[in-house]
């Protein structure tokens, strides 16, 4: 028995597969501490310096992984204010700590309150204030700085969010349509971390697409990758839903869902997580149209795609949504067919341009440009 336990203890641990090693971090917990205020001098009425503050500043190119490596103890503390003295009546203020974080980070305290939403380059927030310097109001004793734990929660900012169940062809599509190099295989859950691809056009226009880990039923309740996936589509302007024309089965123990049921199931997950996501414009990609029987299957489903309400009564109750998503366009594709991929690129640009026009009418653009040019400038038509 002793030998058996010794053998088990000596058994080396299995190495984690390379594609499962974490290379993307979308949340980080830190302790932030403002500097202590300096003490004052009652004899001279001297005032101590205020403690330094801890700031977070959004900057492109910064990652939470890099920040985690830099702050190995996960603690940030600003310096204390200088004590007052007869040589320096007003003590110097403590040095601030300015920490660069990725654009798109939310700063959240332990109570779940969002302190700041840093979604623009250069946006700043005070994570921990410095303590007041000693003065008559404090009995000339410096006050401690603010101390608290905060969570840095990154939500990717992309033009398009790619939504679909595992093995629907999201990674294949992203690789074909952009410069991204996601891992591709013929089994579910190949994508376990978000991937960002950039679609480039001849006129130098560029569109960013986020390929996110495949959803499973129950993602809204944080099953599978759950919230780690869903939070990233909150900031996308357009949803790109990709569905296998032949349906999807997660495993032999799960029921196989038809093409139409998968649309309803994805709709349901988005609705339960955040109903406002259904207000986003959405394009449906019907994938694997290069396979035998795909065209006939699509013809049978076309009336239901055009009117999702039509097949709602036959939808299983557990995946039946109460509010239906609206598709701007429906595009049959094969993720390995370059001609169809180019069609997707054209359609994505057109939909995003139409969306921009709806959000900011052309007349407003002209008026804004005219104001910038000034009254004496050339008339914009």
Short structural description:
With 381 residues, the protein is of the alpha/beta class.
Task: List the SSEs and their pairings.
Elements: H1 2-10, E1 27-33, E2 54-58, H2 64-70, E3 75-77, E4 97-101, E5 105-109, E6 114-118, E7 124-128, E8 147-154, E9 160-163, H3 170-177, E10 195-200, E11 206-211, H4 226-230, E12 238-244, H5 259-273, E13 282-287, H6 294-306, E14 327-332, H7 338-359, H8 362-373
Parallel strand pairs: 1-3, 2-4, 9-11, 9-12, 12-13, 13-14
Antiparallel strand pairs: 1-8, 2-7, 5-6, 5-8, 10-11
**Beta-strand proportion:** 15-25%
What would you call the quaternary organization?
A: single chain
N-to-C SSE string, H for helix and E for strand = HEEHEEEEEEEHEEHEHEHEHH
The name of the CATH architecture of the largest domain is 3-Layer(aba) Sandwich
Strand order of the largest sheet: 10-11-9-12-13-14
Helix segment tally: 8
How many β strands by DSSP? 14
Label the overall shape.
elongated
CATH topology of the largest domain: Rossmann fold
Description:
- This protein has 381 residues and is α/β, with parallel strands linked by helices.
- It folds into two domains: 24-154, Spo0b-associated Gtp-binding Protein, Chain: A (Distorted Sandwich); 160-363, Rossmann fold (3-Layer(aba) Sandwich), CATH 3.40.50.
- It contains eight helices and 14 strands.
- A six-stranded mixed beta sheet has the order 10-11-9-12-13-14, sandwiched between helices. A five-stranded mixed beta sheet has the order 3-1-8-5-6, with no helix packed on it.
- β12 (238-244), α5 and β13 (282-287) form a beta-alpha-beta unit.
- The model is unreliable at 7-22, 182-192, 216-227 and 376-381 (pLDDT under 50).
């Amino acid at each position: 028995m002793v030998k058996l336990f010794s053998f088990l203890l000596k058994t080396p641990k299995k190495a984690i597969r390379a594609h499962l090693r974490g290379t993307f971090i979308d949340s980080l917990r830190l302790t932030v501490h403002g500097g202590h205020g300096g003490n004052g001098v009652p004899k001279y009425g001297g005032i101590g310096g205020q403690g330094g503050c801890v700031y977070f500043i959004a900057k492109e190119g910064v990652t939470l992984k890099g920040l985690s490596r830099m702050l190995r103890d996960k603690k940030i503390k600003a310096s204390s204010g200088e004590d007052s003295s007869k040589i320096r009546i007003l003590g110097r203020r403590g040095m601030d700590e300015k920490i660069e974080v990725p654009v798109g980070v939310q700063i959240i305290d332990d109570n779940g309150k969002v302190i700041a939403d840093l979604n623009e380059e250069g946006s700043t927030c005070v994570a921990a204030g410095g303590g007041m310097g000693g003065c008559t109001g404090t009995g000339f004793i410096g006050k401690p700085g603010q101390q608290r734990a905060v969570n840095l929660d990154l939500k990717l900012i992309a033009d398009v969010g790619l939504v679909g169940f595992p093995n629907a062809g999201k990674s294949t599509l992203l690789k074909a349509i952009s410069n991204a190099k996601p891992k591709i295989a013929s089994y579910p859950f190949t994508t376990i971390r978000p991937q960002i691809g950039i679609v480039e056009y001849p006129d130098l226009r560029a569109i960013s697409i986020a390929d996110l880990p495949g959803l499973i039923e129950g993602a809204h309740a944080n099953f599978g990758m759950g919230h780690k996936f869903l939070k990233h589509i909150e900031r996308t302007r357009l949803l790109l839903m990709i569905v296998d024309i032949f349906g999807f089965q997660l495993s032999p123990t799960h029921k196989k869902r038809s093409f139409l049921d998968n649309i309803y199931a994805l709709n349901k997950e988005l609705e339960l997580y955040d109903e406002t996501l259904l207000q986003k414009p959405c394009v449906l990609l019907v994938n694997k149209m290069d396979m035998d029987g795909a065209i006939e299957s699509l013809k049978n489903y076309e009336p239901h795609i055009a009117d999702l309400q039509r097949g709602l009564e036959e939808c299983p109750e557990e995946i039946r949504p109460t509010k239906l998503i609206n598709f701007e366009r429906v595009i049959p594709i094969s993720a390995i067919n370059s001609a169809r991929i180019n069609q997707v690129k054209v359609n994505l640009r057109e939909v995003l341009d139409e969306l921009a026009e709806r959000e900011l009418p052309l007349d407003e653009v002209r008026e804004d440009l005219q104001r910038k040019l000034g009254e004496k400038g050339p008339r914009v038509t």
